[in-house]
């Protein structure tokens, strides 16, 4: 919803431009709503063209000095930042929970996974080590440096407003770049608090800029010659647009996109572990995770476990962020809820069996929340919309297959390839699965295999456009350019410099 900036009773979200937290002069503002009540909790501006120009110019100018700050000094800022984020962990989680609807514990997890990336960024001196070979020819040495690119940009989604901005700007800035963040307009307050703490940690105020808005602001960044690299996380259509437009404008782009993650269960798997894990992996965070399990593939006799799975899923319920009994919160917006409810209806129309239907879900005391209860479909086929589309809600589709080969074929035929998991007691089955599956992140008896930041977040196929992934060594390569130097020094010049080469031991 867009409104004018006439209403002064609602918190106005600031932007960070030129080292100052300032109000936008925009006349276009977007409401930020509490997803459990629809109450407007803030409004966020669509940064004006003039303000966008100031942010870009400021980032470009800051790069001139920031790239020369010694790498250990940059690392120390990340160390201080990590400490501050830990100190403010609960406060950040509360801001995050209120604007996303996530449960407090889940919100803490969102912040924590970002803190881990900041820890990784504090290792930047060793991550930026280049390569050397002495004597590539007589008296000639070759060595390489990793140098920052300049102004980098991050465009982030609503579903992890702490973790995903923290995937991006700490590493990019630790590498010597400056950064412009355009967070999701649906939950911008968490990223703004992250930015405040970053400056408090000692970062020069103009190395990070935060602007707000939607397509118009993103388009400015995609086409701006001074922007060198773009990191994007969001849906598949927008990811494709960002990748094609950014690269057409000669920028380096990494675009992390949507997903459809399958969990395969072999009949020899630990039954109780499967039942315990599938609940949180499918409906946790209301299914609004790019690594959520949305398809359960039951192989052979494991199809007999469906009654237990239905019972376990039926026992959890959504609730407000501070309700300790709630398994998960509301969907982010009424539009998101309508989309999920429509897909549930389509699933029924297209012939799937709906064992649990959460589309009429209500939560006491919150009549206007975007609630969807746990929803379970069986007899799902690959032609159905609930299988083909990313539902992004607490909806689990079950497919029965006869063999592990059938499961692998099914998954390899799906366009997305973000994450998958296999539950089994067989090392041979696990070995076959991890080798043959065309998905970038694989869990063996782990439902949501998100790699820790010293690895990289490696989605494949339609879940990722680009080559270097987020965090780990790959992010350092993404945010730097390699310079290779081949050097020869003539011993005959030594005498001319007057340097005494005699070493007295
Ligand atoms: P989204 O694509 O709607 O928005 C993402 C960002 O792009 C936002 O900042 C938004 O303002 C901007 N944007 C939206 N439309 C745009 C347009 N037409 N042009 C330019 N910019 C535009 O995504 P979302 O709904 O915020 O997030 C949910 C999606 O993100 C899901 O599909 C989920 O799977 C995906 N996701 C993927 C990963 C991953 O690592 N692969 C991680 C988290 C979320």
Overview of the molecule:
By secondary structure, the protein is of the alpha/beta class. 37% of the residues lie in helices and 22% in strands. The chain has helices at residues 49-66, 71-87, 89-100, 104-121, 124-127, 163-174, 189-200, 215-223, 236-248, 271-283, 306-314, 334-349, 385-388, 404-412, 427-436, 472-478, 494-497; strands at residues 2-3, 15-17, 20-22, 29-33, 40-45, 132-137, 140-148, 151-155, 178-182, 208-210, 227-233, 252-256, 261-265, 293-299, 353-356, 375-378, 395-401, 416-417, 419-423, 441-444, 460-461, 464-465, 480-488. It has a seven-stranded mixed beta sheet with strand order 15-16-17-14-13-19-20, with helices on both faces. A six-stranded mixed beta sheet has the order 10-9-8-11-12-22, sandwiched between helices. Helix 2 packs antiparallel against helix 4. The protein is globular, with a radius of gyration of 25 Å. Residues 1-6 have low confidence and may be disordered. Bound molecules: nicotinamide-adenine-dinucleotide. The site of nicotinamide-adenine-dinucleotide has 28 residues, from helix 8 and helix 9.
